[in-house]
Design goal:
23% strand; binds 5'-O-[(S)-ethoxy(hydroxy)phosphoryl]adenosine; GMP Synthetase, Chain A, domain 3
Length: 568
């Protein structure tokens, strides 16, 4: 029998799932927005300006912590800063619909840039801070990007000569730190008077942001979302994140990943939350300190992070007072019951799993704080969302049978398009209006969904989506590599790690130093998170007889068999 975890007896924004599901309509959600009557739509307005107009200007909107540095900005200050940057961008030529790439670390400049770009109707394109030259080049060139906002450190990784369409690089620094035509944002801000009424009024269908995401084939694809996504982002923020007026909310993701945009910026600010922003990468002591110092009440992170915290042990945990926490959520990869148990024992909280994808624009399968959790399940459909488990022909599977996790389209946050790739967009819809997620799952009689893996070769390491093709392409550029096949190898801490099988070119001999050199080549050219943690040299790679296509599945089976043997 499945274990059931009962909810705490507290007041939540949604108190009875079934009742809400039975009476739900997206139109009722739309009525919450000022544009429902005015017709004037803009995500930046709903996230920031509206709260100032409603009298919450003095409330803290952003609390940034990094090492010894702490910054707090009120909604009024965020409004002023985003108005000012928006003015500068518009005067610099950025127009409605232009893509503005944002390549910044997790800091206030990054969040301000996101909102400012959106405010003038531009499309925000956040880039993950670990990206190196190749990853940046592929993304900016794919959509002929004209504008980039970055800082004096990260700009060193921008391969300017290989970006023919890029017209302006804005650097969040002084002119003396800018070279080769880079533009100092500090100087521009000093010399520009902030304009009133800078907001570009848009329609719900106008593009909002672009996130590049990996699949099992080809280079990453640009997923475009529209302003209508705010309808679902607002409502999931209210019911799933359960944001209430006094909450201090922290989502640990960088905006380069969709969670770091939607649930670190948009959804909490649509709900007028105070957002915590923590600079730097994972570190247990810093993370616990962040919760303690900022008084975090609602916390959204990922299973690998929870597993890493768990692995750090109790001593470090006991050095911190985490009693402010009242609601914890997880996303991005399977949340093992063991981690849920750790949450209950050590943090005194259930961890609420949620499921969604870059393409879906907002959470679709959720565990709500007022409902029973079945550990191992990602939860149930958000109200207004219809789920089915389909077989290979598109027929519904009975309860308990594994099949393709599919969602009835449309829903408010679904992607608007895949940049310049209608074929890719259409490939999600092989069975009419059922969106095929690529995930395998089963559903029980009560509607709870249990994740069972991917139906393709996409890799999920620490909740970060990695396309094998991108890594293989980079490996092949190394002088010693003749062939490459990349898979996700099961890993207790990270869910999966990137493992590469390679065939060496004639004249090269397998040695630890050569392997390290190949690994670094990917790490420093593409991105740290995509560099294979393991590289194994084979005499040949498995391929199909007729077309000679790489059979990654066989590599995966090989690896799984070995793991099985080792565990015996
Ligand atoms: C996986 C992240 C298991 C899944 C928001 C999906 C999950 C992919 C879960 C999307 C979960 C996401 N349990 N797997 N709760 N949530 N995934 O686009 O395979 O970076 O298709 O979006 O992550 O990754 P993406």
């Amino acid at each position: 029998m499945t274990l059931k975890l009962q909810p705490l007896n507290k007041t939540y924004n949604l108190s009875n799932y079934q009742e809400v599901v039975d009476n739900f309509s997206w139109q009722d959600v739309e009525k919450q927005f000022s544009w429902f009557n005015s017709g004037k739509v803009n995500m930046a307005h709903e996230c920031i300006d509206r709260h100032v107009i409603d009298g919450y200007g003095d409330k803290i909107a952003l609390h940034y912590l990094h090492d010894e540095e702490e910054v707090q900005l009120t909604f009024t200050q965020v409004k002023e800063k985003t108005d000012h940057l928006a003015t500068v961008l518009r005067k610099s030529g950025v127009q409605k619909g232009d893509i503005v790439f944002i390549f910044l670390p997790k800091n206030p400049d990054c969040y301000i840039a996101m909102i400012a770009a959106v405010k003038i109707g531009a499309v925000a394109g956040p880039l993950f801070e670990a990206f190196m030259e190749e990853a940046i080049k592929d993304r900016i060139n794919d959509c002929d990007g004209k504008y980039l906002i970055t800082d004096r450190e990260l700009v060193k990784r921008v391969p300017k000569e290989q970006l023919p369409t890029l017209e302006k690089i804005f650097v969040t620094s002084e002119q003396e730190h800018c070279i080769d035509g880079e533009i100092s944002l500090n100087e521009l801000l000093r010399n520009t008077v902030c304009e009133d009424n800078i907001t570009e009024w848009l329609s719900l269908e106008d593009p909002l942001n672009i996130h590049y995401t990996s699949g099992s084939t080809g280079k990453p694809k640009g997923i475009i979302h529209a302003h209508r996504a705010m309808i679902q982002q607002y409502q999931t923020g209210k019911w799933v994140l359960d944001i209430q007026e006094d909450d201090i909310y922290w989502c640990t993701a960088h905006p380069g990943w969709v969670t770091g945009t939607v649930y670190a910026i948009f959804a909490p600010w649509l709900n007028r939350a105070t957002i915590v922003l923590n600079g730097g990468r994972f570190d247990a002591d810093t993370w616990y300190s962040t919760i303690e110092k900022a008084g975090v009440t609602v916390w959204y992170s990922a299973p690998t992070a929870f597993r890493m915290l768990k692995a750090e042990g109790d001593e470090i945990l006991q050095q911190h007072d985490l009693s402010s926490l009242r609601h914890i959520l997880s996303v991005g990869e399977p949340l093992n019951p063991e981690v849920i148990r750790w949450g209950i024992e050590k943090l005194g909280q259930r961890i609420h799993d949620t499921w969604w994808m870059t393409e879906t624009g907002a959470q679709l399968i959720v565990n709500l704080p007022s409902e029973v959790i079945k550990p191992g399940s990602m939860g149930r459909a958000f109200p207004g969302i219809e789920i089915a488990i389909l077989d290979d022909e598109g027929n519904r599977q009975p309860y308990g049978e594994i099949g393709h996790l599919s969602i009835k389209a449309p829903w408010p946050a679904i992607m608007k398009e895949v940049w310049k790739n209608k074929e890719k967009f259409d490939s999600y819809f092989q069975f009419g209006d059922w969106y095929l997620s690529g995930d395998l799952a089963y559903q029980d009689e009560e509607g709870y969904v249990f994740f069972q893996g991917r139906s393709d070769d996409m890799i999920n390491s620490s909740g970060e989506r990695i396309g094998p093709f991108e890594v293989e392409s980079k490996l092949l550029e190394h002088e010693a590599v003749a062939e490459a096949g990349v898979i996700g190898k099961p890993d207790a801490l990270r869910g999966e790690i990137v493992k590469a099988f390679i065939v060496l070119k004639k004249g090269f001999v397998n040695s630890p130093s050569l392997i390290e050199d190949i690994r670094k080549f990917v790490r420093y050219k593409l991105a740290a998170h995509a560099a294979p943690r393991e590289i194994e040299v084979l005499e040949e790679l498995p391929k199909t007889k007729i077309s000679g296509k790489l059979l990654r599945r066989e590599l995966k089976v090989l690896e799984q068999q070995r793991l099985l043997l080792n565990s015996k």
